[in-house]
Prior knowledge:
The structure holds 2 protein chains of 2 kinds.
Chain A: E1 4-7, E2 10-14, E3 19-25, E4 31-37, E5 43-50, E6 55-58, E7 61-66, E8 71-76, E9 85-92, E10 98-100, E11 104-109
Parallel strand pairs in A: 2-11
Antiparallel strand pairs in A: 1-3, 3-8, 4-5, 4-9, 6-7, 7-8, 9-10, 9-11
Chain B: E1 5-7, E2 10-13, E3 19-24, E4 31-38, E5 42-50, E6 53-56, E7 65-71, E8 74-79, E9 88-95, E10 107-108, E11 112-116
Amino acid sequence: SQQGEEDPQALSIQEGENATMNCSYKTSINNLQWYRQNSGRGLVHLILIRSNEREKHSGRLRVTLDTSKKSSSLLITASRAADTASYFCATAVNDYKLSFGAGTTVTVRA
Amino acid sequence: DAGVIQSPRHEVTEMGQEVTLRCKPISGHNSLFWYRQTMMRGLELLIYFNNNVPIDDSGMPEDRFSAKMPNASFSTLKIQPSEPRDSAVYFCASSPGLAGVSGNEQFFGPGTRLTVL
């Protein structure tokens, strides 16, 4: 079963707008990762946030983590057409196994 | 670095045929993963190798699936005989270390899109 679940399943925004997606997970974690998958491609790691961190930035990406609510959010600011992709959160089930959510599909309209 | 390399990128075969998917991980990475991605089930871990040794194959659907890693730079996933329900995108990923506490990221290949008719 999937540890993480993203919300919403799909998101359509205008270029330049911000996109926010959420991830909820079930068990305690050491860290949470976000990945991007462009159509027809493999997943690409975006950012990792550790359990003792509340917020992290990387370029136009901002990730938050609320361990008390077992949830994380990914914000993409000033979206571009190239941000059109599916976004997945992933948590470690054990030392090596990542559990990926079903993903949020983001479409950025020109 | 070329990243994780997978071949073929696309494979179309008929039910009952043997299919072999190939993967070359990133040099120096000691962890290798095979995943299957479908619309219905999302991304599923099939098998995990550490230092060329299979550690967890609990995700392999059934005996028709087998995976090998004869050396640090090559792995195969074989389906014999293939069935239409095996149609999916199969990804190979490698990592320099463990995900759990260390939080090592996984580097994915481009995938092999398998269609079994």
